[in-house]
Design goal:
With about 575 residues, the chain is of the alpha/beta class. The protein has 16 helices and 22 strands.
Length: about 575
């Protein structure tokens, strides 16, 4: 079977399939409702596959702390003092062996309903990713679904010691935990001795900006003692987390997006990934790492398949899209990670970042298309799309815990309007605005290019910016251009980040022609696979001399498939 470009579609089931009509600020489950596993039906999955996705990352599947009371089902009620929002953070895991009851039609059958979703997803030819949250868990962790013989995190800890190699948590002996939400929520979570908070906060009184709803897991690293680490034999947390991964792999999960992987020792990842792959050699591991200087180690030492590239390409593209950096800055960006491109997950949206269409970013998702084309076509690495991105979801609601910040809340019961309109139209175009239809069509065309042209799956890349830096007819502040090639097929990609139409003349140097398989004596035509730009026609000699002329509308990009013929 021909290799496909990996395209991951991230969605939150709580929001994706919510049919409730009301959106009340800070609303409860009863008021605002929740999406269900069952709402992600064959039609929804077919629409995602039709977009060009190969994987779905189901965010917020694992049972996490919430203000909703499920004690009638044998689930321990959470203290509101240590829950963010009414729905709670999907990254404050309460039971690593269970799924979120909010997402079930029948709470007692929640795991069966999730397993059915995994089966439906696989039948559509899509692979399933879920979150692994190894750095921290909910302050009130109690598993009611763990297999027989599994001991809860922290159950065997020596709480009189700040650090012990086989403790699952870090303790602050003699100190009582004080939540910043205690007075506002009218409850008090009793925790004595206090435990360190998930964001490496070793204080008993974390602030609002801390991850106070979580506790830091101990992987054998002593942050305050004389011996910085103890990994021999493997600490208890290592064993517990390995068993969690194997539990979900046994259920048919194809991979894990590993939350804040950079906060967990590389030694653990190397050991755990090696252990798991003895049974599941194809299981995917994607790391969230924000320090560029650590990219190499997490790929080649830890053993991850892929990792986020937020701090290099995303940050640079955002600056270019906002007019705060020249398009030519993209060359310096990709050069920073040269040799790693096949291991990087590129994106323009996810749950942590502001929506492209928000007032805090571009105000219109269509204005990001040149950035999306560059993100998707520069290299062969995986691509991430965030649900609603292709519809122009603005993320400008004030949901509750999350204010108006340009992000779609992960803490609240809510439904983004664009997603609900899509659902009401049975996951077709019926009910979508004209702007959403046009934008989704543009994304489909782009994804089709990725999947149907091998140059964007396993081809090579040639940056044309260096050859045009002194070209007075090419505005390097507004335009970015490069070639992709594979087995005698060439593609020219040009993106216009400017607010104005750009007329330009481009130089393709002899070196580029040689490595891409172009003939200096031939005549070339270029057809835009995205359908927006005029056809190119040029002798190669003209391009060599910087005379390849074209015009590009504001905030657009073109992917020209080149075809050459000998000049008679």
């Amino acid at each position: 079977m021909e290799k496909r470009r990996m395209v991951i579609y991230q969605l939150l089931p709580r929001l994706f399939g919510n049919k409730q009509s009301s959106n009340i600020k800070g609303g409860t489950l009863a008021q605002n409702g929740s999406g269900k596993f069952s709402a992600i039906d064959e039609a929804a999955l077919a629409a995602i596959a039709d977009l060009g996705a190969t994987h779905i990352w189901y965010t917020g599947v694992l049972e996490h702390a919430t203000c909703t009371d499920y004690s009638a089902y044998g689930i321990v009620r959470d203290s509101r003092d240590v829950v963010k929002g009414e729905a709670g953070s999907p990254y404050a895991i309460k039971d690593y062996y269970d799924v979120d009851p909010d997402l079930a039609d029948v709470v007692d059958r929640r795991m069966k309903e999730f397993e059915a979703l995994v089966e439906r997803t696989h039948k559509q030819g899509l692979k399933v990713l879920i979150d692994l949250v190894p750095n921290h868990l909910a302050r009130q962790y109690v598993s009611d679904a763990a297999p027989e013989g599994v001991v809860d995190f922290g159950a065997g800890d020596r709480r009189d010691l700040a650090f012990h190699k086989d403790n699952n948590f870090y303790y602050l002996p003699g100190a009582r935990f004080d939540s910043p939400e205690a007075e506002e929520r009218g409850e008090r979570w009793e925790e004595e001795p206090a435990r360190a908070t998930g964001n490496d906060c070793f204080k008993a009184n974390p602030g609002h900006g801390d991850w106070y709803e979580t506790v830091k897991l101990n992987y054998g690293v002593d942050f305050v003692g004389d011996s910085p680490e103890d990994f021999d034999p493997e600490p208890d947390t290592w064993l517990k987390m390995r068993d969690v991964v194997l539990y979900w792999a046994d259920k048919g999960i194809d991979g894990f997006r590993c939350d804040m992987a950079g906060m967990v020792p590389i030694a653990f990842w190397r050991w755990m990934i090696g252990e798991v792959r003895r049974r599941y050699p194809k299981l995917l591991f994607i790391a969230e790492v924000y320090e560029q200087e650590r990219y190499h180690d997490f790929i080649f030492k830890a053993g991850f398949d892929y990792l986020y590239d937020k701090v290099v390409l995303y940050d640079t593209l955002r600056a270019v899209l906002e007019g705060k950096a020249a398009a030519s800055a993209l060359t310096a960006a990709w050069q920073q990670t040269d040799g790693l491109h096949g291991f990087l997950l590129y994106f323009l949206e996810n749950h942590d970042e502001q929506r492209l269409a928000s007032d805090f970013f571009l105000g219109d998702g269509a204005r990001a298309l040149p950035g999306m084309v560059v993100t998707a076509t520069m290299f062969n690495n995986p691509l991430l799309l965030y649900f609603g991105q292709e519809l122009g979801e603005p993320g400008m609601d004030e949901e509750g815990f999350s204010g108006v910040d340009g992000r779609t809340s992960i803490f609240d019961y809510w439904h983004p309007q664009t997603l609900q309109l899509w659902q009401q139209g049975h996951w077709g175009e019926e009910g979508l605005s004209e702007a959403s239809r046009r934008l989704r069509a543009a994304y489909k065309r782009l994804m089709k290019v990725l999947q149907e042209h091998p140059a964007f799956v396993k081809g090579r890349f040639y940056d044309l910016m260096w050859a045009n830096e002194d070209n007075p007819a090419f505005d390097a502040a507004a335009l970015f251009a490069f070639l992709r090639y594979h087995e005698g097929r060439q593609y020219l990609v040009v993106a216009n980040f400017s607010e104005q139409e750009q007329s330009f003349k481009l130089r393709i140097p002899s070196d580029a022609m040689q490595v891409c398989g172009m003939k200096a004596a031939w005549f070339y035509a270029g057809n835009d696979l995205l359908g927006g730009a005029r056809k190119l026609q040029f002798p190669a000699q003209i391009a060599l001399n910087g005379g390849l002329g074209a015009r590009m509308a504001a905030r657009t990009a073109a992917v020209y498939e080149l075809s050459g013929s000998a000049v008679e």
